[in-house]
User: What shape does this take?
Amino acid sequence: MAPSVTHVTGTVAGGVEVRFTPDGIAVCRFRLTETPTQWDATAQKWRDLEPIPYICTAWRDLASNAAESLVDGVSVLAKGRITGVKDDSIYLSVDDLGISLRRRIAYTETSLPSPIAARSYTAPPGPQPATAAPSTGRPGSPPAWWERRRSANWS
Assistant: This one.
């Protein structure tokens, strides 16, 4: 019976090691930690359960791409087959990887933002406060602060 496929969402813990077989095939290995959550009805909030450690292995192009893309702390989605459990870790042979977009933006070679997106953004000016009513109430009369400053000899 073939091992069943599982999906894991977790955080990369540590660096990604990449090695090559004598035939030149890339193999990478990295640690992944999944922290399941459970709803606590009495406290009315989610609480973290015991973290589940995975040791993941990927091959060929996936290994090369993972080595170039993954860094410590990045959240990923992994699809693969559990190949064993040893030393309180689950060994996962990864078939596919994706970076989780829950907390970050990921760009690909074809979706890089244009240079226009890198320009600084200046917010449009907000609404100007209304000026004080003219002291005489006639259009074109100076505002009240003008008369006060004038009467104080502009000091």
Remarks:
- The chain has a mean pLDDT of 85.
- The chain has two helices and seven strands.
